Amino acid sequence: MKKWLTAVLATVLILSTLTIAMANHDSGNGKSQELKKFRVGAEALLEQHKDLIEGKRVGLITNPTGVDRDLNSVVDLLFNDPDVELTALYGPEHGVRGSAQAGAYVEYYIDEKTNLPVYSLYGQTKKPTPEMLENVDVLLFDIQDVGTRFYTYIYTMAYAMEAAKENEIPFIVLDRPNPLGGHKVEGPVLETKYKSFVGNYEIPLRHGMTVGELAQLFNEEFGIGADLTVVEMNGWKRTMHYDDTPLEFVMPSPNMPTLDTALVYPGAALIEGTNVSEGRGTTKPFELIGAPFINSDHLAAELNSLKLPGVKFRAASFIPTFSKHSGKLSHGIQIHITDYDSFKPVETGLHIVKTIHDMYPEDFEFRAEDSKGISFFDLLTGNGWIREAIENGQSVEEIKAQWQDELDQFKQVREKYLLY
Q: Structural domains in the chain?
């Protein structure tokens, strides 16, 4: 009897295991099929919408992130396509090939690979001039954004849209995923007084939109009025992590080396507005934060005691090779994301700034104000009141409560322009 029962139980167990395995296999196949259908805007353009550029002289705004799933450059794809006449290239901050450091001006030159003229859209000329557009019938934009208001590529796009409007040239955005996902929105909405090239429109720090969606919002809500077309991605969903796509993460800029950098950036980059190093000059920019005057163990312990969602802080020391505290031993923390779904980068960044400010009042400084009383920290937050709130001892919760109404209003406007 016992042997019979044992045999029955063993059979049931085997059948259950096989059923689960087959279900997982089918599920895996389904996901695999979805990934095979995935296309970024550049691929969708050449496979499904080539009529938008055929028979036209094409200008392309791009950088090294303009690649397909197989890491082929959109420059090469267009240049080598017999149906496409690529006539000019335009580079944002860091240039078409991505070799220039932050803030460095890239002059006009001839691209060695294609022999095409390359115009800089950073520095002296952020907006394409009529002369730059003389040999162009349609202007394309294909750059990977990182989902944060103060990343300059989205304003390069907006200025180029203005130029396209003024010169009666159609403008096409080849859409790409938002590495932060497309369903979470966080942080203060920029105030008009604090407009700059690190924040030119009234959007929050973490906007939760793709560049194509932002282009539509900029075009309609802020009166650009360009002849705009967005070539949508195939297979992208708002809840997808970047790792859920078949795409490799290509460095959008020299200090954005990994996906983890992009994930912490909306909050960690607020450190740029202070005298504390944001990790430039190390292999972990924006993940490493510190200064010579900080005690790393004390700071890590204080931040960990806050029990912020989805993140832990490790005591760390480093010597930046350039930028703030170059060549000096600095102490601080490394940010480790433990659960991205619950991680709140903007809130986390504010806690880091406030904690260092409160722990080291004699040493910590916000960057100096300009003649208008505006600090670079203010340009990053998009207002002047957050800096004052930190200096006056307000909590991060109190600060968050003050931006919530405008954030809710933005969310309502944003809904009109979501494509996915």
A: 41-244 (3.40.50.12170), 259-383 (3.90.1150.140)
